Structure formats: C-alpha cells, structure tokens
Amino acid sequence: MEEGVPCPAPAAKLTAPVKKSQDMHDERSKLVNEYACRVLELLGMGHRLFVPRLLATSKEDLLQADFEGALKFFRVQLPKRYRAEENARRLMEQACNIKVPTKKLKKYEKEYQTMRESQLQQEDPMDRYKRENRRLQEASMRLEQENDDLAHELVTSKIALRNDLDQAEDKADVLNKELLLTKQRLVETEEEKRKQEEETAQLKEVFRKQLEKAEYEIKKTTAIIAEYKQICSQLSTRLEKQQAASKEELEVVKGKMMACKHCSDIFSKEGALKVAAISREDQGIESDDEKDSLKKQLREMELELAQTKLQLVEAKCKIQELEHQRGALMNEIQAAKNSWFSKTLNSIKTATGTQPLQPPQATQPPKEST
C-alpha cells in the first residue's frame, strides 16, 4: 500500500464518557459494545486501512493454518482478540498511523460520499427516522440515568458534607472547651507559681536570718568556750602553783616544827599529832600561838585549794554544757537546712506541674538554742 499523508483520526471519540454507576458490570458491557460498534464502523468505513494491518498482525497465525483454519480464524479468533479494549485501541492507533497519499484520500472521500448518498437514497425514510428515534431515545435514557446518578451523588455528597460539618462543629466545641479549661488552668498555675515564689523568697529570708543568727551563736559560743578554756588553763596553772607553794610552805612549817623541841614532841614527821598525852604545864604560850597560827594558815590554804577545785569543776561543767549546746545547735541547723531544701524543691516541682495543687505548708524556722 502506498504511503504519504497520515490518515486523520476519526472525529468521534472512542473512549466512553467516564461516569459513576451503581452497576459496574453493565457499564463495562456498554463500553465494550460501544467499542465493538466503533471498531465495526471503522472497519466498514476504512477496510482498506484496517485489512492490511490485520493481515500484518495475524501473518504468523494465517501462515500456520490451512484454508478452513484461516476461515475459522477470521470468524472466531480475530474478533475475540480485538474485543479487548487494549487490543482494539492498539489496532486503531496502528491504522491511524498509516500514511496515505492525498489523492488516495480524496478518492476515498468521494467514494464514501457516493456510497452514503446511494445508501440514503435506497434506505426507507421511515427506517431512518426509526433508527434516529431509537438512537435519540437511548441517548435520552442515558442522560436521564446520568442525571439520576448525579442527583443521587449530589444528595449523598450533601449528607456526607453535613455529617462532616456536624462532626467538625462538635470537635470545635470540644476544642474550645478544652482551650478555656487550659487557659483557666494556666492562670491558676501562674497564680500558684507566684505564691510559691513569694513563699520561697520568704523562706529564703527566714532561713538566711536563722543561718546568720546560728552562725553568730556559734561564733559567740566558740569564743566563750575558748575563753573558758583559757580561764581553766589559767586556773589549773594557778592551782598547780598554789599547790606547789603550799607544799613548800608546808615543808617549811614541818621543818620549823621538827626543829622546835616542843613541837617535835607533839607532831610526828608526817605532821600528825602524837597519841601520847602531854601535860598542859609543859606547853608554853609561844607554842600555843605558833600552833594556832599554823592551823589558821593551814585552814586558809585548804579553803583556797577547795575553792580553786570548785572553780575548776564549775569551769569544766560549763565547758561541757557549752559543747553540748554547740552540738545540738549544729544538729538543728543541719536538720533545718535539709528540711527547708527538700520542702522548697517539692513545692517548686508541684508548682510547675500541669495540674494545680495545694500550696505546701510553710516550713518552720529552726528553734533558737538556749
């Protein structure tokens, strides 16, 4: 076949209008029937275009078959093969891609016009009108069906949109309520946080004052303890000196007493009175005066020694008491510090939580040590 200008595609669209239908099987059947009608129409209009393509695509099958097989192939297998939409579209594309000379096209056009005029002249007008009426009725029914489908789809879409709108409004109401609750909770949380910050500042101030007071008390107690220790050391040194002086004086007195003839008979070497009786006539006025003075001096020394010991004991007791007070004060300060820090941290954590909670009780400052 000669090649030249490509054959123009048929004016009628081969694809069926896409529409939604409740019965997909009927729609597919209509589509297949329409394609079959279009293919047959094209075959009838352009058999000179399609026959070479059919022979070219079926060349192998025709060469392998005999005469009866070829007839069966044209009658059964070939229509069945091109009944599928994809094969029919491929065949029409191949047929439309055939290049035909312009002279041939004009010749084919004249032949087609002549054939159509002869068909119209030979055809009964009543049959033509009936066929046209049938075609118009089918088109009207198809349009009515499409109208019903579109109306049903419109109603369904309106119902679905209304349901979606109601759900969206309900969701918006819920979100607005949650937003109001969240804002209220945020205000309460901020107020609670502000109160917690004020309480924290007050607690810090109280703790700072108590800490300064405790440090001052500790310094004061430390100074008093150091002073008492110094006093005790001085008293101990003084006591030791007085004891040494008393011993020296006692030794001197003993020496004098032993050197005296009258006293040596009365006192032993250890300073105790002898058991043997001594007559009053042998005692003189000087021995009595000396004895009284020595006894008086001894009593004074013993009294001074007792007072010094008493002062030393009192100083030691005072030192122990101050040490005890210092330890108790340090324990109270440490306990107050730990309790205050823990309660402050808990209150801060509670204040920064998502839900408003009760404010923590204010911590009591540590008691002053007496």
TrEMBL record:
Presence of keyword Coiled coil: yes
Source taxon at top rank: Eukaryota
Residue ranges the record marks as coiled coil: 126-245, 291-339
Chain positions covered by the region annotation Disordered: 348-370
Keywords recorded for this protein, A-Z: Coiled coil
Keyword Secreted: no
Gene3D superfamilies linked to this entry: Ypt/Rab-GAP domain of gyp1p, domain 3
Protein name stated in the entry: RAB GTPase activating protein 1 like
